[in-house]
Amino acid sequence: MASGIAAVWVPVSDMERAVRFYRDSLGFKVTKQESDWSEVDANGLKIGLNAREDASAHASRGAVITFQPDGGDLETEIDRLKANGIEITGQVSDHDWGRIMPFKDSEGNDLQLYTPPTD
């Protein structure tokens, strides 16, 4: 039985660009940085940036990393991402279980912002 998530690995084709994205655009701390592997602390969840020769094949398939914005204000975080030139790939969608908004990281990986439902 699994006891939790140890890390999420994200394929990247440009390590420097990926590190800048997760550090500068999302505001996470980079705890390790090498040419083929870097680690980001996303509020206790380790995101491993894994250099691959053909990282572009992963986009729009497989796992999606979902982030919860500070303070839970989705619109403010969307505005901040747009101001930083982040590719927004859809609109905010409202569901019984919360609201999500898709975007991409610097390497074309699918990401989302998520806020839980309000009462």
TrEMBL record:
Gene3D superfamilies: 2,3-Dihydroxybiphenyl 1,2-Dioxygenase, domain 1. Residues 4-116 form the VOC domain. Pfam families: Glyoxalase (PF00903). This is VOC family protein. It comes from Arthrobacter terrae.
